[in-house]
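Technical annex B. To support the medicinal chemistry partners, we prepared a structural model of the target in complex with glycyl-adenosine-5'-phosphate, based solely on the information shown next.
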Amino acid sequence: MTQTLTKLDDLVSLCKRRGFIFQSSEIYGGLASCYDYGPLGVELKRNVKNAWWTSVVQMRDDMVGLDCSILMHPLAWKASGHIDKFADLVAECKKCHTRTRADHLVDKEGKTNEQAQTAEDLSEMLCANPKCKAVGDFTDPMPFKLMFETQMGANVDDSMTVYLRPETAQGIFANYKNVLDSTRVKVPFGIAQIGKSFRNEVTTKAFIFRTREFEQMEIEFFCEPGSDEQWYEHWKEQRMQWYTNLGIQAENLRMRDHDSDELAHYAKGCVDIEYKFPFGQGDWQELEGIANRTDYDLRQHQRGMRSTTSWFENKRDTLATTMAAEKEDWHKGPLSFFDDEAKKRYIPYVIEPSAGADRGTLAFLVDAYDEEEVKGETRNLLRFHPKLAPIKVAVFPLVKKDGMPETARTIYDDLKQHFNCYYDEKSAVGRRYRRQDEAGTPYCVTVDGQTAEDQTVTVRDRDSMEQTRIGLNQLKSHLREKLDM
Ligand code: GAP
């Protein structure tokens, strides 16, 4: 049976010990809610992103990719609604002045009040500072803006406030027309992007689950109004399958429909793909949101495009700029699509599957973790899907003599051209196997005394610990087949 990590602290220490994830700027005492990926972590996360890209871009004829800049014209954030509305409601404890997201405060039973708007609604809630014993002693929740601001431009005349993007999605909307005009795609089609996003999150201390700098893997899928429900269902199915195909256990994954009061006013539907993280009470937490955003974003950007004169008149002060009203013939606007065959013009509806690369990486890591008793000792291992495993093959000489290291090195030099490999000749071979188990390496190749005699090596399977003798001339194809690469 799969053993799980039930304490977040144990996961944090495993990640540090094995070089998956480190606290950012640790030598300076750390920077809250920012993390660095170590040698194994960077490979794991890269594999997660590659698996996503392969599935949603490479394997599909109706999807293309994009890589947009992090800084965008500030009007894009006015049009998207982020400048005016992207904020969390935050309440301050009157006793210790700790500020916490109102919807994250819990009462004695551990219950939250997601709809809390006033201090009265928080009368049963405990202060989030464990050193403060205050109960229900909060200010009224106030909006706290989540976008990081910075200044662009050296001259007073052309300098302006710009924002670190809080999502990659708006870069896709801003380029939708460029993609239509420069490629052969036609609606229905989608654009995928992987990239960094930034949010000045209030609630931290959730390891890489909620950070201030994170990576998203987002799709905006453009379709004809009326076909949106069908595409919404399609993407829900596709995205659930992606997680289970890569090894997440089905019982740890669910879809949760948003209640009507959770839905953005423009959204027709939204569902979260949630993973049952085993920490604390065993919490279902969002990995990915899939939303039917209707034609809202493209219509908003049409208004944004018509607001530039007002923006210049306001000396590039985006906060002071009022968005232009929507034109009566908005459906014929610059971001409309003309369907040549049906001779119809419309603003496409958008289905948006938006996933977190860090949250996905965390879920794959937690789900792969296992412990088992082997000959009276505990074996810790990460049962990663081979596509996600940071190291695919480790190569060892059984002992450091009799030409074994030289042969093992030759095998390693050959294999590393095809797979991410690791060479190790230090310590007893049993300990080397255990280290690779903990790194999640699916196969270990060992050169032993027999290799020189019959040109065979042993290939050890991480999960079953079985060892098979394979001829050197078949090793590459054997591993390729096993790794499905
Ligand atoms: N464009 C839609 C959008 O950004 P979201 O639900 O705010 O929607 C999508 O974010 C995904 O991005 C989330 O499901 C989560 O996986 C990831 N994400 C959001 N905020 C995050 C944070 N502070 N830290 C890590 N991942 C985050």
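Notes passed to the chemistry partners:
Residues 167, 169, 199, 201, 210-211, 214, 216, 218, 286-289, 352, 354-356, 358-359 surround glycyl-adenosine-5'-phosphate (CB under 6 Å).
The first helix runs from residue 8 to 17.
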